[in-house]
Model the fold of this input.
Amino acid sequence: MLYTICLQDMEFKAYHGCYDLEQRVGNRFNVGLVITAHLGEVAEKDAVELAVNYLTVYEVVRSQMAITQRTIERVAQNIITAVKERFPQVVELECTVAKLAPPLGGKIGRVSVTLKG
Done:
């Protein structure tokens, strides 16, 4: 059996961007994950140690957000790779990374990418 865990609206200040100024000044980013994993005996044994621990997932995301990249596509790819390495029971992971108020020369709330892996 499979189950889904959603982590929504994780917000970070980070230094991702294609412009040097973005990498110096930073910006606010929002990350969302939809994780599909094998349930195994998590529910039957009420065993948190067998589950995809969302506190650990948050820490993995936070550590990846601290690594400056030029594209948010690369950031999302790194998050997917790191979470799947930490939790082999993950079958699929959807990661959305949004840059809030990106510097595009006009008013825009966010720009985001979503990767599935």
Remarks:
- Residues 72-86 form the longest helix (15 residues).
- The chain has one domain: 2-116.
- The chain has a mean pLDDT of 95.
- The domain at 2-116 is CATH 3.30.1130.10 (GTP Cyclohydrolase I, domain 2).
